[in-house]
Amino acid sequence: MTTRLVEVRQQILKQNDVAARGLRGRFRAAGVFVVNLVSSPGAGKTAFLERILTDLGRVYRVAALVGDLATDNDAKRLARSGAPVRQITTGTVCHLEADMVSRSLEGWKLDELDFLFIENVGNLVCPATFDLGETLRLVLLSVTEGEDKPLKYPTIFSTADVTVVTKIDLAAAVEFDAPALCRNVQAVRPGMDLFEVSAKTGAGMNQWLDFLRLGLSAWRADTRPIPLLPLVESSPGAKRFQSSE
Ligand SMILES: Nc1nc2c(ncn2[C@@H]2O[C@H](COP(=O)(O)OP(=O)(O)OP(=O)(O)O)[C@@H](O)[C@H]2O)c(=O)[nH]1
Ligand SMILES: [Mg+2]
What is the reported pTM? Predict the structure, then answer.
């Protein structure tokens, strides 16, 4: 019984990896930099993304997909930025899959975009093993969740490229221990970049947007072939692009 379950899961993952590889090729050909945002429910993905779409959208061509089990509440919030947005409702599925992303992109001209943001379903476990063909995986953690989360949920941190600590305006109220979080992130994913932001006050947003702008330029200048292995299985410490290049 146990053996059969593992086999089924492996098959689904393999199928997703094939679809993700196809997506990665399309994104590369179109020159669109794709960011996959993962976090626990309520960490602040939509609030953060609202700011990104509004600020970045003044200069760059941006769009977003957003996944939830039910409702199109987040799509409505994100659409206030003026960017094209589509909601993906997953029903009972606790993560987005590459095929869902593929279907949601129908009719969009990818080569008319600079950035595509994908807000994943709020969950610190399921989205970790599903590659969406993204250029950058971003894990968000709010100051109210506890500094130990990277140690308790290592896969989602070790498969991400960047950590963003959200709701930094609440840090003092919850006695957030920034050095402890930093140590825990580095223990799971040595060398990972870490940003602190507040979608409420705008603190830290400029540094984050600079990182994205540099990331886009570095990635577009990088003409190396796309690796054959799914990048989510890459060893901890590996980077999908170098922001400093
Ligand atoms: N104080 C403060 N509250 C925030 C901040 N960002 C988000 N919030 C609040 O946190 C709650 C959840 O924010 P969302 O942006 O909906 O979180 P989410 O990660 O998109 O949630 P799901 O999509 O349901 O997983 C809301 O009440 C937001 O107003 C922030 O920077 N500071
Ligand atoms: Mg949301």
Answer: 0.90
